[in-house]
Specification:
By secondary structure, the protein is an all-alpha fold. It has a single domain, classed as Orthogonal Bundle (Retinoid X Receptor), CATH 1.10.565. Helices cover 65% and strands 3% of the residues. The chain contains 11 helices and 2 strands. It has helices at 13-19, 22-34, 51-72, 82-105, 124-129, 133-149, 153-165, 174-195, 200-208, 211-230, 238-246; strands at residues 114-117, 120-122. It has a two-stranded antiparallel ribbon with strand order 1-2. Helix 3 packs across helix 4 (82-105) and helix 4 crosses helix 6 (133-149). The longest helix is centred in the middle third of the chain and has 24 residues, at 82-105. It starts with 12 loop residues before the first helix and ends with a helix.
Amino acid sequence: MGERREMEEGKTEEEIVGSSDSRHIKMLDALAVCEPDCLEINTALENSKHRTLSILSDLYDRELVGIIGWAKQIPGFTDLSLNDQMRLLQSTWAEILTLTLAYRSVPLIQLARLKFAADFTLDEKQSRDCGAIELYQTCCHVVERLDNLSILKEEYYLLKALVLANSDVRLDESHSLKKFRDSILSALSDTVGILRPTGVLHQIQQLLLCMPALRQADQVVRRFWSDVHQQELVPMNKLFLEMLEAYCR
């Protein structure tokens, strides 16, 4: 991905640091450092007719652990109350994980495969076989949006943080959320301005237009895993169930 998405205009991270507000660079630097690594599947999972679902369930659960740690490292997030922090995560985790999945899958777009882990991808046939075709198609749509944008990793980092801050859930301290969201928007604007000096407004608009597709994916992801749980097809770990059941849009 790094080779494919080289910074436009030859800008380096050092040049970005020297060109923009230090607060916004602190945001970008923090996001670059705390981006979770791509997981590998748990080889200890039993072989069964629902093995694909078992792998996906385990990956989603472990990814959830990762985004909780990720969020806590974003400048401004821990300024929110603990209740508000949890509400944001409960209301946006599906969008965040969909964006992460889509970004990792962009290099595989010609193969029409979704990269759920470093050693596990899913194609249309596999998705249909395990009952996840709607989830697959919805996520592929987001992949196409990101590919059309030629999204850079710095834009992805900031868009992902913005998804976390863009929840419409009711919070105790809405003013703190606004401050948090505004800091991310400012960092995004500055970063795009440096990376794409001739098309700033257009790129920002297109990035923001990805968010409705992520919101749609949120519904699909939650509905899919709720059905899996209700049908008791595979075991689902406690954290995954708590996040799934805690909030419905």
